[in-house]
Amino acid sequence: MTTTAAAPTALPARHYLNEQEGVKSWLLTTDHKRIALLYLFSITAFFFLGGFFALLIRLQLLTPTGALMDSDTYNKVFTMHGVIMVFFFLIPSIPATLGNFLLPIMIGAKDLAFPKINLLSWYIYVLGGLFALAALIGGGVDTGWTFYTPYSSMSSNSRVLTAGVGIFITGFSSILTGLNFIVTTHRMRAPGMTWFRLPLFVWAQYATSLIMVLGTPVIAITVLLMAFERVLRVGIFDPSIGGDPVLFQHLFWFYSHPAVYIMVLPGMGVISELIASGARKNVFGYSFVAFSSLAIAIIGFLVWGHHMFVAGQTAYAGLVFSIITYLVGVPSAVKTFNWTATLYKGSISYDTPTLYAFGFIGLFLIGGLTGLFLAAIGLDIHLTDTYFVVAHFHYIMVGGTLMAYLGGLHFWWPKISGRLYPDAWARLSAVLVFAGFNLTFLPQFVAGYIGMPRRYAMYPPEFQVYNILSTAGATILGAGYLFPMIYLTWSWFYGKPAGDNPWGSKGLEWETTSPPPTFNFDTTPIVTEATHQYGHHEEVKVV
Amino acid sequence: MAPSIPIFPEQASTLASRVDNLYFFMLATSGFFAVLVTVLVVFFAIKYRRRHPDEHGEPIHGSLALELIWTGIPFIIAMVMFVWGASVYFALVRVPEQALDVYAVGKQWMWKFQHREGQREINELHVPVNTPIRVIMTSEDVLHDLFFPAFRTKMDALPGRYTQLWFTATKTGTFHIFCAEYCGTRHSGMIGHVTVMTQADYENWLGGGSAGGSLADKGQQLFSQFACITCHRSDAQGRGPVLNGLLGSTVHLANGNTLTADAAYVRESILNPTAKVVTGFQPIMPTFQGQVTEEQILALTEYIKSLPAAAAGSGGTGGAGASPAPPTPGPTK
Amino acid sequence: MSDAALTQGLHAAHHPRQMHHFDSMAQQKETATFGMWVFLVTEIMFFGGMFAAYMLYRMWYFPGFAAASSELDITLGGTNTVVLIGSSLTVAMAVHAAQLGKRNQTVWLLIATGVLGVVFLVIKYFEYKVKFAGHHLPDGGMIWLFPGREFQLGPFIYGGFDVSQSPELAPIASQVRIFMVIYFALTGMHALHMIIGIGILAVILRMAIRGEFSKEWHIPVEIFGLYWHFVDIVWIFLFPLLYLVHRHG
């Protein structure tokens, strides 16, 4: 039954947060839930750093002549914004925080398969992050987050190597997390938890982990080869000494395209959970949604050349990449329709997580559809390297992943912290984020089609009005991100106790206390039904 | 530039309207689905809002029919988009027969244009209206990209290779040129204008003349300056192959391969002569790497194109002015 | 997964080596093995990127590759191949001995594996030394680690004559340098994996000497064996690709 119980008055006596105390118990923990919080803390720090750079970008672009900073500085600012947001925020975000916290609980396990490796991956992430900070403090990098050669290997005077080392190291954090998740999902499921009873969040994490494990080593070797060229002055990518710059792009995008699916797939997994819980209804077409996660992961490895339509690859390569790019869009469409159909005859609450889920659907829709524009190779010739692309990927990564991340945080916050946050502020923030986001990035589509190129520190005056709108939106967006920082932190200490299941949701995580005990369950659950079965007589039995 | 706020770029080339039509189609289709899903979500969210705290939704498993429909229809629409996009793409990359060649060399942080008649421009390009123009480009240093928003076309300029784009401008006026591949400090300053003129005005402008003569003239001066003439005679008595009629002809290499001579082949042979040695000749040509600039190579190529075709021992079928082959991947070796 | 431990609480009786988050030794063993396989897949992708670069440049720069490859010492390379295959044999036998709970055999076979691994690295050291002395580092004069060791071409024999003596063939120098980069990148990464493997071997050897392995629990030896075999297989690919380009008789 999903009746909301009487309001709880206190947190459980013992749980994972107070089981052991002291800094050492946190820094040497092997509890996946504590590690998730370690990640939460560090990626939030990087998010605000990357966000600060975004603010600088938008301030610079308020005026066509870019009065705020000189071109060199601006080039470093947009590079650092990209590097930090992609490698140190988006890629770890949902998997390392929500995935780490929830994956074992959702499958009924006591921890991940390799808890110590889990802790190691956090330390590796921090080490990589320190190198990135060192690059920043040492003067910054100005190559763009894409590090294209020969500029990055032969021409740039900035801290390319330091940043490269940071990215190389952090990649291993990603690889180990993915490895851990794959093995956990295969080997640690509770009795009765068959593959097709898994929550869709788990399917999404699994698909993401496949990409992490297969793709990340390639960026590692790409950065290594670029570093060799820079240090040894040998021509792997620099044509003046016999290398091929397009080879760099192939190697780089072979990882970096699947990387964008590392960023968005977990978000889709979160949305499946938020919609099912928000509508108190199982997701429509469960197996189709599960398989589309896998399809996106696999097909996503075959489309990298769509970043290179004007880079000098042959026309025929371009056509192949274009058609496969259209194929990879289909599973995303399938998911969107399935989520919409889930709402039909649901019982829909307007809680904060649900609002974020609706926001995701709207924004991911625009982001995904504009991807179709870019996949049309004849149209991409005009659009590539303009603000149209910038708007497209921000719609997916910010409008998509970040909304899903915030929605997931707000959904599982009561489970993680044991406490509730102030509802009104939360809903206001969700609306602010949605409105501010659209104001920031919709004008960029227009500016891009007119021809405003990306990575410009200054621009012809006719683009100014769009830039002003964009900056205005960014301020609202920033507020929308700042408020959760404040009220979520407040709620950690002063929020009302949440109780086991404040949303009345189905799922193994809601069958245990908030916060959960260190080993997640007092006894191993036995699963007898699929996920999100509301209104059935059989329930999850905990023996 | 007009002070008003643009919401759409000018259509100034023959292909601009084709690109825009594809864009409008995409807008319409995406708009339709965006509105459809949004309306459904909002409608369901209101109609099926939770009315009391213990309520739950109806357990509906799924529907194979619906899944097939909403997989199949998007797939078909996607294929239509692909084919339309591919068709526009072919138009953008297939250069018409009688295109006027202009050369562009990108370097940090300027565009250097060379007309065959000899004019050189920096960050400015004058072209005649209603004439197909092909821009053959390369870079002296890092990646750049030549972007003409009003013509809806762009292409990366790569060091070590030639790439090309083409357009036919349909109205006179001045339009933006941007560099669209990040290239360092003054990437945002690597901009300029293309001025489209009537045929008559263009002739006048050309008639303003260039001190050094045409590009081929410059090439001829370089040909003797670098002593190419010593080995590459036109009478098949030299130690190097005859270059008359080279471009567009089939070349037989010492290693048994054959190729069609294009501008990239000429460039490689100047910078890395032993990479592709013609059959029957020794690998004795010295390299000119570091001695000759990209612009000089283009001038030399123009000169070779201008050599009269029918000479003994050339064995070629292509003539002066034959188009370079489409860019091939991989470094020039 | 139907152990008695399933329906009991956390502190039911279990093997001292069973970790708390596992329900049974069988689950723990399967998980560890599976984890090692997934890790090896990532290693394949890692080396795969370098192999891809190798393939492309070999296609484009065959003369330089052939010349450079012929300068590698095929005797040392071949010996190393035999050494590694031998070490895979000894480690497989060590795993077998561990599975049977035979402590002494396990220890000696692990020692043999380690010795062969060290032999490999020593031979590698001598190979690298020749390269350093002969100025065949792909160094463009920028690296401060080995001053005075900048790349010099030659002698490199290709097509029957010494490429370094022909100024027209100077462009081959850049091709040879690329080969050397790939050579050092591939063999260097491989050697690094060997060094790490020997380090892990030392830890496992210590556990074996102290009698920590048994028929019931010997999983570290097994997954170490998997890793070692993988490192061996990488070399089996490296050897022909690097040493045997254009070798005749």
Which structural class should the secondary elements of chain B be placed in? alpha+beta
Distance between the termini of chain B: 45 Å
Largest sheet of chain B: 5 strands, mixed
CATH fold type of the largest domain in chain B? Immunoglobulin-like
Radius of gyration of chain A: 23 Å
Proportion of residues in extended strands of chain A: under 5%
How many helices of chain A? The count is 16
**CATH superfamily heading of the largest domain in chain B:** Cupredoxins -  blue copper proteins
**Series of H and E elements of chain A:** HHHHHHHHHHHHHHHH
* Unreliable residue runs of chain A: 538-543
CATH class of the largest domain in chain B: Mainly Beta
CATH superfamily of chain A: Cytochrome c oxidase-like, subunit I domain
Number of domains of chain A: 1
Helix content of chain A: 55-70%
CATH topology of chain A: Cytochrome C Oxidase, Chain A
Helices and strands, with pairings:
The complex is a heterotrimer of chains A (543), B (333) and C (249).
Chain A: H1 23-27, H2 32-60, H3 71-90, H4 93-107, H5 115-137, H6 151-155, H7 160-187, H8 200-232, H9 245-279, H10 286-299, H11 315-343, H12 352-375, H13 377-383, H14 387-417, H15 423-450, H16 464-494
Helix pairs in contact in A: 2-3, 2-4, 2-5, 2-16, 3-5, 4-7, 4-8, 4-14, 5-7, 7-8, 8-9, 8-10, 9-11, 9-12, 9-14, 10-11, 11-12, 12-14, 12-15, 14-15, 15-16
Chain B: H1 16-47, H2 64-93, E1 100-107, E2 110-115, E3 120-122, E4 124-128, E5 132-139, E6 144-148, E7 153-157, E8 163-168, E9 173-179, E10 192-197, H3 199-207, H4 215-225, E11 250-252, E12 258-260, H5 263-271, H6 294-306
Parallel strand pairs in B: 1-5, 4-10
Antiparallel strand pairs in B: 1-2, 2-3, 5-8, 6-7, 6-9, 9-10, 11-12
Helix pairs in contact in B: 1-2, 4-6
Chain C: H1 25-60, H2 62-70, H3 74-99, H4 103-133, E1 157-158, E2 161-162, H5 171-209, H6 219-243
Antiparallel strand pairs in C: 1-2
Helix pairs in contact in C: 1-5, 1-6, 2-5, 3-4, 3-6, 4-5, 5-6
